[in-house]
Amino acid sequence: MSSPTPPAVTLLTRPGCHLCEAARASVDRVTSALGLGWAEVDVDGDPELARRHAEEIPVLLVDGVPRDFWQIDERRLTRLLRERLAG
Question: Residue 56 in contact with residue 4, Cβ under 8 Å?
Fold first, then answer.
């Protein structure tokens, strides 16, 4: 039996965003503790993402689904990722 595919964790940010700094630290703490990686995407490089999330940056996506914006709830993210890892 194979293990479940690790969840894809993506943080949408933009340069100069003070909330993004705290979000990066939160996502990094949680994913590091669980042995997971994560990706950061600058929405200013993607017009569709910039339009869709203009006022919500930073946005946390897990497997493409928005889970948090502005501030990351580390306990909720930990719980969600553990559930995904358990399959």
Answer: no
Question: Which pLDDT tens digit goes with each residue over 9-67?
Answer: 999 999 999 999 999 999 999 999 999 999 999 999 999 988 998 889 999 999 999 99
End-to-end CA distance of the chain: 12
What is the side-by-side order of every strand in the sheet holding 59-62?
39-42, 9-13, 59-62, 65-69
Work out whether strand 65-69 and strand 39-42 pair parallel, antiparallel, or are unpaired: unpaired
| Predicted local distance difference test score (pLDDT) of residue 87 | 82
Question: CA 7 to CA 83: how far, in whole Å?
Answer: 10
- Give the Cα separation of 11 and 19 in Å (integer): 12
Query: Distance of alpha carbon 21 from its chain centroid, rounded?
Result: 13
Give me the amino acid identity at 78. Answer: T
Q: What number of other Cβ atoms are within 10 A of residue 50's Cβ?
A: 15
Q: Supply the pTM of this predicted model.
A: 0.92
